[in-house]
Amino acid sequence: MIVKLATKRGFCFGVEDAIELTEKALEEYGAGQIVALGPVIHNPQVVQKLEEAGLNQSGKIDEIEDGSTILVRSHGASPELFEQARRKNLEIVDATCILVKKAQDAVKKLHQEGYQVIMIGDRNHPEVRGVIGYAPNVIVLDSVEELDEKLPHRDKLGIVAQTTHSPEHVGEIIGAIAQRPFQELKIVNTLCLEVVRRQEAAIELCKEVDVMFVLGGLHSANTCELARLCRNYGVQTHHVETWEQFDPQMVVGRQAAGVTAGASTPEWTIEDFVSKLRAFDAHG
Q1: Phi, psi at 219, each rounded to 5°
Q2: Which residues contact 129 (CB under 8 A, 6 or more apart)?
């Protein structure tokens, strides 16, 4: 079996920055002295390594002692959370991705300009929960089917999207919105170009293989989107976190395997998987 890797894969700069900032904070404050408001990134293996280095990643702000140090993860947080932290005299280490900050700023500005803000995204995702806090009454939707129920008629609409969504998905919804009655439509592109490049590289690789492996956290939005795009292309696709989830049945009858990884997947996970896949093939 031939094993090919996507030209763009793994860590994006936002994830790299968040991990680097976290590691520096651990060095400065010491193990056990920083509480993160949820996993820094959506990758269980990286989360485990940071916990082993002394980071508590399950903190709830209501339960954190006044005067402690907290870390805001790469997905960002709402203004209310920052205000609550200040009231509790918490020192804040902010690891929010700069592109998530861009989405937060866009939502705030659109509201100030008089637009009804609409965010295309998963309302349960931490990024979305944080971003919509920057304006009142933001409408969150993630499918064309939701438009009848949620989209206001003849209003000024300002649209942003979850950074990890695909242009294809966002474009479909914006196209459907544009066919509805509205007074004015303003779209701010908040998609992450790094994520888009990984999506494009994955689709290109799908043309060369007959089975795809997408590596990354099972709850990582951008990794799940990679797997969805590969499946939509028509290639048998397996979303796994590590080699431990590999099953020989996944490659039965396949000649060429492609490997890609989400933006929160470390290179060492990719290298381990690829080397073992090649060794498995060699031993037949």
Answers
A1: -110, 10
A2: 78, 123
Residue 180: CB atoms within 10 Å:
14
Name the strand (E) or helix (H) holding 146: none
Strand order in the sheet with 236-240: 2-5, 256-261, 211-215, 236-240
Burial class (CB in 10 A: 0-12, 13-18, 19+), 52: exposed
Interhelix angle 44-52/13-29, nearest 10 degrees: 20
Domains of the chain (ranges plus CATH)?
2-11+193-282 (3.40.1010.20), 13-97 (3.40.50.11270), 99-187 (3.40.1010.20)
Task: Tell me the three state secondary structure of residue 129.
Answer: helix
- List residues with catalytic annotation: 127
pLDDT band at 31 (very low <50, low <70, confident <90, very high): confident
Task: Kindly report, residue by residue over 230-260, the tens digit of the pLDDT.
Answer: 999 999 999 999 999 999 999 999 999 999 9
